[in-house]
Structure formats: C-alpha cells, structure tokens
Amino acid sequence: MSDGAVVDTRPTKIMYVAEATAHGGRNGYVTSQDGQLELKVAMPPALGGDGNGTNPEQLFAAGFSACFHNALVMVGRRAGLDLSGSTVAAKVGIGPNKQRGYGLAVALSVSLPVVDEDVAAKLVDAAHEVCPYSNATRGNIEVTILLG
C-alpha cells in the first residue's frame, strides 16, 4: 500500500504446517517430517564451501518462485485469464549486513507470454499482495520483480 498504512498479513487460520529439521547446519542435511524431503546441504563455493549439496538460499528461491507463481495463476484465473506457459524464476542473494550479520535479497523474473505488458504488470502487483512469501518478506527483504 502506498499510503504507509501497516497491513496485517498474519493468517487468521492455519490450514497447513510444514515441518523440517536441519542436521549439521549448512554442512549437513535437511529432512521433512513426512519424509518427502531429504537433502544434503552444503555451503556454496562463493561462501567457502564445496557446493556438494543444495543450500538454504536455493531452497528459499524454489519456495518463493513456486508460491509466487501459484499466486500469479490464481489472480489470473480470478481475472478470467489462462496463464499457461507463464514462469517465475527466483534469485536469492546473501551477503553481510550493517548489523554484523547476514541478509537476503530476492529478484523474481516473471514471464507472462500470453498477456500484454500492462495486464502483466497488474497481475504481478496483485500476486505480490496475496503471495504468502511476499507478505512474509515485505519490509524485511528487498524483493525486485522483473517482467520479461
């Protein structure tokens, strides 16, 4: 919202809870409670690791892109549009912040080949308002959305 009002985006009802456990931090493995996920985790070479496994940033990019794409398809459907062939790619960057910790930045690249640029921009704005990842990161992480 452009008027500066704080919008409460907390859920009013929890419909699903995902559970995952990390073993060994960034050089170990992660598992989900239901057994659907069991992945080796490793520091990427850019952060001094061997890159022999996935990493939290890749997992976040996968989750954000899938969630945002679902939101996009949903707002498209509400507008009577079929967004078949559309994609959302996410890049998640990590680096030091001013508080001696680390922060993230996200870039979402949205491809909507079946609609014109004005309609695409409106759909992306609407998806950004309803996507749970967008709501969770708003005001905390820089999120850039590119239409291409």
Describe the structure in brief.
The chain is α+β, with helices and mostly antiparallel strands and 148 residues long.
Could you explain how this protein is built, in words?
It is globular and about 45 Å long. Helices cover 29% and strands 26% of the residues. The mean pLDDT is 95. α1 crosses α2. The protein is built from three helices and six strands; from the N terminus they run βββαββααβ. It has a three-stranded antiparallel beta sheet, with no helix packed on it. A three-stranded mixed beta sheet has the order 4-5-6, with helices on one face. The protein has 148 residues and is α+β, with helices and mostly antiparallel strands.
Write out key terms for the chains shown.
single chain; 148 residues; alpha+beta; three-stranded antiparallel beta sheet; three-stranded mixed beta sheet; 3 helices; globular
